[in-house]
Design a protein that fits this description.
The complex is a heterodimer of chains A (about 325) and B (about 325).
Chain A lengths: L2 H25 L8 H39 L2 H7 L4 H10 L8 H13 L4 H10 L5 H10 L5 H24 L7 H12 L5 H36 L2 H5 L7 H13 L6 H6 L7 H13 L2 H10 L2 H26 L1
Chain B lengths: L3 H27 L12 H24 L4 H6 L10 H20 L7 H7 L17 H10 L2 H10 L7 H8 L7 H11 L3 E3 L5 H10 L1 H4 L3 E9 L8 E8 L8 E8 L11 E13 L2 E13 L17 H4 L1
Parallel strand pairs in B: 1-2, 4-6
Antiparallel strand pairs in B: 2-3, 2-5, 3-4, 5-6
Helix pairs in contact in B: 1-2, 1-4, 9-10
The chains are: A mainly alpha (about 325), B alpha/beta (about 325).
């Protein structure tokens, strides 16, 4: 066994542990509580949650996979290069607004960004698109607008802060990250694509289908692990106990980030959850929730790890976790 | 041959999983339970997805049947995610995809009720969710008047004690609003004139918000509400909440909202029983906060609605009453 395959084995243990836990629970729901009736209700709640989360993410995943596969087969690399201006600053600004053209949340966006980068989109632009895309798009705008009917300033603050944070991280990545953080197996995409481009129309279609299928399973497995974890938390961790943890001026921001991370909500619906906390939490901590969650959450982290090396993922998470609450606090203090 | 057989097996398994998901969606649509899992506005997308997954499944089946003919694809289009791992890993990964399917088919479809509500935390007051406006903005008063149907103004005229001020400004004084709570105020003015105020499920959350925001105006008014019975441990024996799950996309983002009710025969109703309750609105203390409580006159047991959840209302919230 070579070192690489040993490395590849590592994260699977977590997967096995999660599955074992779920199976154990399914077989022995009474382990979770002495009250069997409560546990049976819990299991049925877990089922409802898991099915619901999976059904909700499948369309976005399929859309992302379809766009990615069509791009892979039909769009020449030169187009992508032209889409993003050469000037890094302009490139970052353009990337931060691409979400307006492609309104999906991160489940659909990550396969697309991965493909764009394989086709020559610069790393910094890809990262900016990936971070801002799930927030800065028309669907999320209208959902936030409806959820905060009575607090419209939240809508603009959310969009603005997401762009600002994505721009800042794009610049940091541009200046700091010199080594290629894309996982090796992914890099082979570019090579095979150039060498083995097939000319006929049917084999192009075959290639696109093959691709869509492979990518569906490749990304889908991370999505399902994330969905299982999110469903477990939604079913077994009472919110009231969580809420007791942090409501201070600063701790509330930390708490809201953790909360957004484990809930792993879709950016199109998290505004409604945020608005239900308006009475108990400060508006600026809810802003943290609504900007941090779409950028980084449990589901997304797993998907990011499939694209980037772990070190780079940690860097991005750290930057988002520092910049988002900082930005929210600034907005809360100086603008509102 | 040894090289291709595993690939054929993979293709078959993938075809089965994709077809399984597509079939599960069709199954949910057929038994009319899809709305237990996702909001109506998401439904078209999952239906399209079922078609896409079915096509992809057919394609995998075709690949599996073709077998070795497509050997070159395994190499050419392997972009780092074609199967090339150990057996337990494969079993594990495909097991992940099968888990939701197994749960889906093996366990009955249940409406999210008290159990989920207790984990998520029942909200018995929404007053905090909406900013309490400080007072009417003088520039908007005239505009607001034109929005109130004449009938309401006349009704409210009879109800309000005679005073020198005109009925409309009287109403405006009762329902102060700012730029952002204007829709709630408009709805409040309409509801204020009604004999029985029905919490319409199309805009359940918006109606509850309106009542809660202008709670003082609605004390003593009769309110009718339908939902499931929910109890907290510290509620009195004659208390329960009439609740609905408000959902925007999927059950993960669902939030339980309810109105506290008091009824002498409350014990007759188990949790998760669906009821329609009519009662007079009061303000009472619960857990150190003033909340609105319905003093029930009449409680009827009903069938659980076909679509048990409520959703955010995207239109202007007064239009439901104007119809």
């Amino acid at each position: 066994m070579n070192p690489k395959s040993i490395l590849h084995w590592k994260p699977e243990y977590t997967f096995i542990a999660v599955l074992a836990f779920v199976v154990a629970m399914a077989l022995h729901p009474e382990w979770l509580s002495t009250d069997v009736i409560v546990s049976a209700a819990r299991l049925s709640t877990f089922k409802t949650m898991l099915i619901s989360i999976v059904l909700e993410t499948i369309p976005f995943l399929l859309l992302g996979v379809a766009v990615s596969s069509l791009m892979h087969v039909y769009i020449p690399e030169a187009w992508i290069r032209r889409l993003i201006p050469k000037n890094p600053l302009l490139g970052i600004v353009t990337a931060s607004l691409l979400g307006i053209l492609f309104p999906v949340c991160e489940c659909g966006l990550i396969p697309v960004v991965r493909r764009l980068m394989a086709k020559g989109m610069p790393l910094y632009a890809g990262v900016v698109f990936m971070l801002s895309g799930p927030v800065v798009n028309p669907v999320v705008y209208s959902a936030t607008y409806v959820a905060f009917r009575s607090r419209q300033e939240m809508v603009y603050a959310r969009m603005g802060l997401a762009v600002a944070v994505a721009l800042a991280i794009g610049l940091i990545v541009y200046f700091v990250v010199k080594r290629n953080p894309i996982r090796e197996s992914r890099e082979s995409m570019r090579v095979t694509f150039n060498v083995l481009r097939t000319p006929s129309r049917t084999s192009k279609f075959n290639e696109a289908m093959q691709h869509a299928g492979s990518e569906f399973f490749d990304m889908g497995k991370y999505l399902i692990v994330g969905s299982i974890l999110a469903a477990l938390i939604q079913t077994f961790v009472p919110r009231s106990e969580l809420l007791a943890i942090g409501q201070g001026a600063y701790t509330s921001h930390l708490f809201m980030m953790g909360f957004a991370y484990i809930l792993s909500l879709c950016s199109t619906s998290d505004a409604f959850v945020a608005s239900s906390f308006l009475g108990t939490f400060s508006a600026s901590s809810l802003l943290t929730f609504m900007v941090f969650g779409p950028m980084i959450d449990m589901k997304g982290t797993l998907m990011l790890l499939s694209v980037f090396k772990a070190k780079f993922v940690v860097l991005i998470i750290a930057l988002v976790a520092i910049l988002v609450p900082l930005g929210s606090l600034l907005v809360g203090t100086f603008i509102w | 041959m040894e090289e291709h057989r595993p690939l054929t097996v993979h293709h078959l398994i993938r075809a089965v999983i994709l077809a399984g998901f597509a079939f599960y969606v069709v199954h949910l649509v057929k038994i009319d339970k899809l709305q237990y899992y996702i909001a109506p506005r998401m439904m078209p997308y999952i239906k399209y997805s079922a078609v896409a997954m079915f096509l992809l499944a057919t394609y995998y089946l075709y690949l599996a049947l073709q077998g070795s003919d497509h050997k070159h694809h395994g190499a050419a289009c392997d972009c780092g995610h074609e199967p090339a791992r150990s057996l337990p890993k494969h079993i594990f990964i495909y097991g992940l995809f099968l888990l939701p399917l197994l749960l889906g088919f093996a366990f009955p479809d249940k409406i999210m009720g008290s159990d989920a509500a207790s984990v998520k935390g029942m909200k018995l007051t929404v007053k905090n969710v909406v900013q309490q406006p400080s007072g009417p903005l003088p520039t908007q008063v005239e505009e607001a008047v034109t929005d109130v149907p004449q009938s309401v103004l006349e009704e409210s005229k009879t109800e309000l004690p005679a005073s020198e001020a005109s009925p409309s400004s009287e109403l405006d004084a009762l329902f102060p609003y700012d730029e952002f709570s204007r829709e709630y105020a408009d709805l409040g003015k309409i509801l204020y004139g009604q004999d029985v105020i029905t919490m319409r499920e199309e805009a359940f959350l918006e109606y509850i918000s309106t009542i809660d925001l202008y709670r003082d105006n609605f004390v003593g008014k009769t309110i009718e509400i339908s939902g499931f019975v929910y109890r907290e441990d510290d509620m009195a024996p004659n208390q329960f909440a009439v609740s609905r799950m408000a959902m925007s996309c999927c059950t993960a983002d669902a939030e339980p909202y309810g109105l506290m009710a008091e009824w002498s025969q409350a014990a007759d109703f188990n949790k998760d029983t669906w009821i329609t309750l009519r009662g007079k609105l009061e303000i009472k203390k619960y857990r150190d906060a003033d909340i609105i409580v319905l003093n029930a006159d009449k409680v009827t047991k009903i069938e659980a609605p076909k679509d048990p959840y409520v959703y955010p209302y995207f239109g202007n919230i007064t239009e439901l009453e104007k119809q």
